[in-house]
């Protein structure tokens, strides 16, 4: 059994509006047999934090186009994307891309 | 005697005619001088821009405070004078960007915008003034820039960047030609029209268009965006870094994209991001970005033509500090954050090993949205589910019992509202917030007491422009007869802005 994992979640660029306008969330992911990965985190967020209109945040098993995911201040593409295994105290940021000017 | 008087009068008349003609010529010349630079409404070839060989005494005085920086120096300043930058969009980002580039002594500025100056632009688009309302933004911006630095060659384009004109505008030679490596003082190739492109646009299709045009023509793209209190900046297609499509291979669903006219923006936020764009452009243009500062002093002596600072060889370019990096600014928390991005993606459709984007495409179709930040009109309802502002005026005039439901967010209701309206934001209806449904039910019950029992109470839904009101009608039709009593629900086509335009001109528009 893996121990519970505490992660810091941040939403920005307007993505926070799907979470009652709250930008920062400190959450604890319960202990489970396998280690937590990003794919499972997205499912957890959808079930526990996202109240309305999930299609504006997730599409299939990943984030919708136009949302950039950062793991500890690096593009998640550099970290293994959905397969990245979360560690205690990780900082995960979901940024909606801006287009205005 | 009489003859002399007559002759003098005739001579005087002649002279007066001459003076009037001179005055008219002078006025004409002053007018044409004031209207320089000439506004371009299509893509015309420009004369090649050559870097200055040396700085004049006036240049030295003017740029002295930046010449003192080892990060720029005389060579960097000369490089700036030979660099042309295309600014796509003369709005909240483009204005401060153009201003700082001109002040710093950039050689040429292409200022492109299809739009005209409006009063609601002035809080953030700081090159335009009250007297410029109705003028082409490109012209207004370039006049302001010329006032600041008359040595900058300003080329205003009053046109929409499109797949048809983008490549011709950015480059003068076919894309398959070798990328010219800028040689200081002389050129081995014809001068490209623009060396660097700055994306200051306000919509998704234009951002993909600018990216693909930059990849196809081999130009660095300094891209920024802003909304509400936040901004983002990245340098694409430079120093071997990723392009916009490496990061965002698929455009976002149109319904997830918010523009400044819907979401709002604090003027200083694009101001900050536009200034940051200017900084990144200046580092690339001077050829003396962060890498130059790391070069050993001995190497700095290498000033042979095309030697150290071949700024536009994209593969050997010194990394701009925001290449392969995303700079994010949150104005609410006054926080900057710099994110390490993925490298150039081998599978990228535009800049990858086997690119599928080999020419410009229809970006409005690709993105499913229009290349503008103007509000798009939705058509979700049938004709009998909608009334016009004029119809609503008649309902008021006939004192027909009804509820006027304003579904805008509170912050917009505070700007203006009709005094007899009930405010329940669309989001509350969508979430079926119980306190709001109770409020609505209360008003329905009250209305029922005032009217004949067999008739269904009428609810007219209004918002700013008639888009959210249609969504609200769809929600209310589901609620009708279940969560609230059965109602007849319609929306006011064109919303409060149609009311202001057609019925009550004293009602504010925003």
Can you lay out the helices and strands and say which pair or pack?
The complex is a heterodimer of chains A (101) and B (510).
Chain A (H helix, E strand, L loop, with lengths): L4 E8 L11 E6 L8 H11 L9 E2 L2 E2 L3 E5 L2 E2 L15 E6 L5
Parallel strand pairs in A: 1-7
Antiparallel strand pairs in A: 1-2, 3-4, 5-6, 5-7
Chain B lengths: L1 H34 L21 H6 L1 H4 L5 H9 L2 E5 L5 H11 L3 E5 L24 H12 L4 E5 L8 H5 L25 E4 L4 H14 L3 E7 L2 E7 L7 H4 L12 H4 L4 H19 L3 H5 L2 H4 L24 E6 L4 E6 L22 H5 L18 E2 L1 H9 L5 E4 L3 H6 L6 E2 L2 H5 L3 H17 L7 E5 L5 H12 L8 E5 L2 H9 L7
Parallel strand pairs in B: 1-2, 1-4, 2-3, 4-5, 9-13, 10-11, 10-12, 12-13
Antiparallel strand pairs in B: 5-6, 6-7, 7-8
Helix pairs in contact in B: 5-6, 5-11
Pfam family, one (chain A): Urm1
GO cellular component, one term (chain A): cytosol
Family (chain A): Belongs to the URM1 family.
Can you characterise this structure?
The complex is a heterodimer of chains A (101) and B (510). With 101 residues, chain A is mainly beta. Chain A has one helix and seven strands. In chain A, the strands form two sheets. A five-stranded mixed sheet of chain A has the order 2-1-7-5-6, with no helix packed on it. In chain A, strand 3 and strand 4 form a beta hairpin. The N and C termini of chain A lie far apart (49 Å). Chain B is globular and about 90 Å long. Residues 173-190 and 290-313 of chain B have low confidence and may be disordered. Chain B has two domains: 33-367, Rossmann fold, CATH 3.40.50.720; 383-503, 3-Layer(aba) Sandwich (Oxidized Rhodanese, domain 1). In chain B, the strands form two sheets. An eight-stranded mixed sheet of chain B has the order 3-2-1-4-5-6-7-8, with helices on both faces. Chain B is an alpha/beta fold. The chains are: A mainly beta (101), B alpha/beta (510). Chains A and B meet through strand 5 and strand 6 of A and strand 5, strand 6, strand 7 and strand 8 of B.
CATH top level label of the largest domain in chain B: Alpha Beta
How far from one another are the termini of chain A? 49 Å
Beta-strand percentage range of chain B: 5-15%
Looking at the overall shape, the CATH architecture of chain A is Roll
The count of domains of chain A is 1
- Predict the CATH topology of chain A: Ubiquitin-like (UB roll)
